[in-house]
Amino acid sequence: MDDGVWFTTARLGRRFGIVALGVFVFSGIVLRDRTALATAVELPEPIEVAEPSAADEARSLSAASVSSRDLVAPSVLSLELRLGERRLLVYSGEMLLASYDVAIGREGWNTPTGEFSVLRKQTNPAWEHPFTGEVVQPGPDNPLGTRWIGFWTDGQNSIGFHGTPDESVIGSAVSHGCVRMRNEDIVALYEQVSVDTVVRVIQ
Q1: Which of 13, 29, 48, 178 has its CA 20 to 30 A from that of 39?
Q2: In sequence order, what are the beta bridge partners of 99?
Q3: What beta strand segments (E) does 57-143 contain?
């Protein structure tokens, strides 16, 4: 550079026996002694770094532990319907979350067994009679109650969990294949499951 002199920290150190930070350009100045350098360069005060306290280290370890827990994927929710027991179990992974008494399909209209998944959820569903085609609109007399959770279909008929206006049938085999539940239970189940939740039906 023609109009000045570059001094690096290394050159300053070697020349004047001090520690300097950064790169300095002195326009038209040639430093020849330490007095001139002290006048031209104002060195920063040294910065003291405090050692971490035991409390700081404990907080750091606690934060790291919480972050690790946050990275763990939540357990997958699943349903297991035990026809012989007339009972529906709700699991989160291997942990049992809830158990509900139910009514199931009667002889000739048996609830299908196997592994399925929730296909559709609906609040205040209408019901169509499987023989007459009569449609019952949502209301206190609707056979489906206030919630529908479908998990099986042949393209024309569907089977699922739903409420009932007659809770005295719970524990019996009385339906056309569907799983009837107490109204408060189906409302709770509706909030727990989502579309694609696994449904296992066993004898």
Answers
A1: 48
A2: 89
A3: 77-82, 87-92, 95-105, 114-117, 120-123, 127-128, 135-136
